[in-house]
# Entry
Amino acid sequence: MDHGVEISRIRYMWPIMFEKITLKGLLVLLLALLLVNVVAVSIGSEDSSLTVANHTQHYLHIFIDGDPFLYVAPERSVTYVSAPKPDILVTAIYAPGQGIHGSLIDTVSVPYRGATEACSCEEDDQWGDCVYTPATGGSARFEVWPDDLVPED
Amino acid sequence: MKFLIVLGLLIAASLPCRVLAAPGPAPDDTRSVGLNLGYFAPLGDWKVHPYAPGVDLLKGGFTIGGELEGHLIGINFAVFMNYTRFRLSDWVDYARSQGDYITASTSMVSTGLLAKFYFMRSRASFMDFDLGFAYCAFNGHESYDTYSYDYNFLRDRVGMIFGLGFWQTMSPSLALTLNVRTLLIFEGVRYPDGLQHDVYGMPLTAGLRYLF
# Structure
């Protein structure tokens, strides 16, 4: 085989291949990537989220699992999103400078299903294919009322 | 008022230098490195405390920075970095008056690129219009009772910066500069319950430039 001829053929064919890829191929590639992304999101873990609402007449500093949500106005709410977990720790205090003191510490349960791994059993007592299902979380809402905030000394 | 006093002091400080002025190279014909010192005046609602009546959470403070300027594709560009320290005494004092003892501090580091257009040239002085962008990173912190938290409602973002500068060359390699600029960061403040403000303020600085 004359390698020189082969190389020149590849050089000749390459622009044609590239032209074909640009229209149809690129669209197919984008659709495939989109599909993979959608599937990845749908089979991936669903986050846990907790919305905390301030029903007091004052501004609150709210700490959800240690993350600060500062100056939450009366009748406003904040939402915390995290990896799936069964419990979320909520701490709320009256923001300083309002002439009122009080705090709340509570653990809020949120819908949660732990990760599972199911394996089929083959005839000769051997484990077959295993299917792993990641943990999934859910949403919950927590209301903070004036009576919930215990006055501090 | 304090802003005007600082502006007046900076202009007054520049007068002796104008007397000593000597012709030097035009700033757009040479490279320079400089040090700026001045006052950052925060403007607008973003600096106001969310609920304390008539109280500013952040008040203006000193700013210090460096600038490196060069000539590229027919335009002068300057790379800069500034450090600004805000004062929170208004808010801390107010909280104390309500019986709450807090400690708080907030600073901002900004870095970016400016395009500089020189005009109004005379023998030894020049004026320039600056336009560019700045990445601004805030570092705010407060301690109250047993709680300690960051001011995460101050967001690190890219903003735009523009303003005017004045050059007075003192020798072939030294110049005095005065700069009045405006920094604008869209949605630079966002409280977790959704309230947000654009951040803007005026850095007012005087500095020295070494031309090389």
